[in-house]
Amino acid sequence: MSEALTHTQLLAFERQITELLVQLQQEERELLAGVIQMQPVFCEVGEVKDGLAGNLAMQMSACRAALARISAGEYGYCDTCGEVIELNHLMADPAICSCVRCRRADSRVLAAVM
Ligand SMILES: [Zn+2]
Q: Alpha helices, DSSP H only, in 38-99?
């Protein structure tokens, strides 16, 4: 298996994801306290998720999973096919866990189900 990311890049992503997670936890606290309002949020494949709370929970679990993959040395590889995830996709969304090909396949499956 070839090296997807350098150690420096991994550390940068780890910091970025940790910061994102802290921010999401803060948003969740504000949401629970009624500071911010529920609103429909469009997720990646374009369907409306069950409001901001569901979206936050989803993002937080994605962040936790990404941090776990960093400690396991699996970060940067697609969960589905094991291919290296393109760096520009990781930079756009550090918590993604599959390559663009598998995500496209995923949204096709979702579209077929709906
Ligand atoms: Zn893949």
A: 51-72, 87-92
